[in-house]
Write a structure and sequence with these properties.
The complex is a heterodimer. Chain A is mainly alpha-helical. Chain A has helices spanning 2-23, 28-52, 63-72, 74-109, 111-125, 133-140, 144-167, 172-180, 185-219, 229-238, 242-270, 275-278. The termini of chain A are far apart. The chains are: A mainly alpha, B mainly alpha.
């Protein structure tokens, strides 16, 4: 009863606080405080509901229990993090995005390839590529190499389509100007077209951060060594150790946000001149 | 039409590479078998063998096509289109979960977008979380949702549809919020000078002008929904559906079965996205937004 009352009270306080804050003139503080209060309120209500109604931990563990599990099993989480994120997702991400970038430049050089490969690339980008996972696991074995391969295949086409689109982002006037300067193909590419393509390239890089993590985690459902986030999630669900599953999900959430945030920061540093960054 | 030849060339090149890779990947096994039987394979025999193995590392395209025909066309001809060995049956299972999840996700997404556009508190508190949640690999939660919902007594279609819904509602929210806000101040002022109620403003200005945004995000949502349904079928222990075919294939090394399920899933995704594209063109044409 106490917990239910606590939940209702925290809901009321959080709600009132947000309504009051939202009515204030918009500032950095309010636009940061409102979502934070919302998030904290959700967690408090979650805690209250689980404790108040005595929900079985097999169904939904309380946030405090998840936090304790997280603190107790940091070595397992770290080991899984290294296996899945550093070895699987990150190496695949670098390889996939790098090769897509290079191939995009080649495609851009030959209009024939462009007209042929772009529709195919667009088509493939919409397909459920995660399904390639069992095949690649079969080819490259259970260790991180197969996960990196899945990530490469998943990030390749979105990155390719974005880069090719970006390389076409210069207008005729700018290219004509480069020609009047008698600049070579390489100079035009380096000094005009690649910088102009940067916003598109970063868009591709940002979209593919989540895809890389999803690819690495899902590929582990099809077979993996006895560590890794996907492995831990699927086996812990089987053992009904949901607190550990939630701890892994917290790790995945933190990694995903940090990965995306890192790329966004890099974008800010490299495309500071672009109108969308100047606001 | 100008791009027809290049596309054809690229597709042909893909098939050539595929056949070549099949030879390269399946050669060790073929040579191994030949050595055991003490026969020397000529080059043509070797190639023929690599394109017709039972459990190849990479099946040749014609093997996959034959498998798909065996599990779809032939089953229909025998009048057993919905037997458990038929790929049509498995595709239908996946498709129904995809569609249910897509409809739920789209409905929920549109409602949430309307709330965000009309309520400042919701905009400020929910929107940042919606955007942040895009960066989280939600698919990782799939096995847990399935098991937990099973424990509560919900099984079958709904858990998979829930995952599809979860994946498909984000693009719809983001697209619809953008779309409902797309009318500019001039248009909103015009509605006001006509003394329009907020209901009229919504139905006659905001909703129609959000349509292009809605369709763009529906395409993304549909593709995501299919991925959700396929991944949702993995942890249930390979009972039915395209995801189950993938898992069963990978357990028993049935590569041809994996590839046929994969091609089926790709065809399904392409058909669904094309269908939305068609509806988009028809709707926008009726609304006079495209010629």
């Amino acid at each position: 009863m106490m917990w239910i009352a606590f939940g209702v009270i925290s809901w009321l306080i959080g709600w009132r606080a947000n309504v009051w804050l939202a009515a204030q003139p918009k500032s950095r503080f309010t636009s940061l405080a409102v979502p934070v209060i919302f998030g904290v309120t959700v967690i408090l209500i979650w805690e209250a509901v689980v404790r108040g109604f005595e929900v079985s931990p097999v169904l939904l563990p309380a946030p405090s229990v998840i936090a304790v599990t997280f603190a107790q099993s940091t070595h397992i989480l770290w080991q899984d993090f290294v296996q899945t994120v550093i070895k699987g997702a990150l190496s695949g991400y670098v390889l996939g995005c790098g090769s897509a970038f290079l191939i995009a430049i080649v495609i851009d050089r030959f209009p024939f390839l462009q007209r042929g490969l772009l529709p195919v690339g667009n088509f493939v980008a919409a397909l459920p590529i995660v399904g390639m996972a069992p095949i690649l696991v079969m080819w490259f074995g259970f260790d991180w190499q197969s996960k990196a391969a899945v990530v490469v295949v998943m990030v390749f086409f979105p990155m390719l389509v974005n880069t090719v689109e970006g390389l076409q982002a210069t207008d005729k006037m700018q290219r004509d100007l480069m020609r009047t300067y008698a600049s070579s193909y390489g100079q035009t590419l380096l000094k005009l077209r690649l910088p102009a393509a940067m916003p598109f390239i970063f868009n591709g890089l940002k979209i593919t951060t989540t895809l890389a993590l999803i690819g690495a985690i899902v590929a582990e459902f099809f077979g993996s060594p006895i560590r890794g986030m996907g492995f831990r999630i699927s086996t812990s669900v089987g053992q009904l150790a949901l607190d550990l599953v939630w701890a892994e999900i917290v790790v995945a959430a933190i990694v995903g946000s940090a990965f995306y945030g890192g790329v966004a920061l890099l974008e800010k540093a490299m495309t500071f001149w672009h109108p969308s960054q100047r606001g | 039409m100008r791009s027809l030849l290049p596309i054809f060339t690229v597709v042909a090149a893909i098939f050539v590479i595929w056949y070549g890779a099949a030879v390269a990947l399946n050669t060790p096994w073929a040579k191994d078998q030949a050595k055991r039987n003490n026969v020397e394979l000529s080059f043509t025999e070797l190639v023929a063998d690599t394109w017709s193995q039972k459990k190849p590392k990479l099946p040749a395209p014609h093997q996959v096509v034959a498998e798909i025909w065996k599990t779809t066309g032939e089953m229909v001809a025998k009048g057993r289109a919905f037997s458990k060995r038929s790929l049509i049956y498995h595709s239908w299972i996946t498709l129904s979960a995809t569609m249910l999840g897509f409809v739920m996700g789209t409905g929920f997404g549109i409602l949430l977008a309307i709330g965000i556009v009309y309520n400042r508190v919701m905009d400020m508190s929910v929107m940042p979380w919606v955007i942040a949640s895009q960066t989280i690999p939600i698919l990782a939660v799939a096995p847990m949702i399935i098991v937990v919902l099973n424990a509560v007594g919900i099984s079958g279609l709904l858990p998979k549809a829930m995952i599809s819904m979860y994946l498909s509602f984000f693009p719809v929210v983001v697209g619809m919020v953008k779309g409902l806000r797309s009318p500019d101040q001039m248009q909103l002022d015009q509605m006001r000078t006509w003394n329009a109620t907020s209901g009229q403003e919504f139905w006659r200005l905001r909703l129609p002008s959000s349509m292009p945004f809605l369709f763009a995000s529906l395409k993304v949502a549909m593709a995501a929904s299919l991925v959700g349904a396929i991944v949702g079928e993995l942890p249930t222990g390979a009972v039915a559906g395209l995801g189950a075919r993938l898992l069963a294939g990978s357990y028993y090394g049935q590569t041809i079965q994996i590839w046929s399920a994969l091609i089926m899933a790709a065809a399904l995704a392409a058909a669904l996205v094309a269908l939305i594209g068609l509806i988009q063109r028809m709707t926008l044409k009726k609304m006079g937004m495209v010629q």
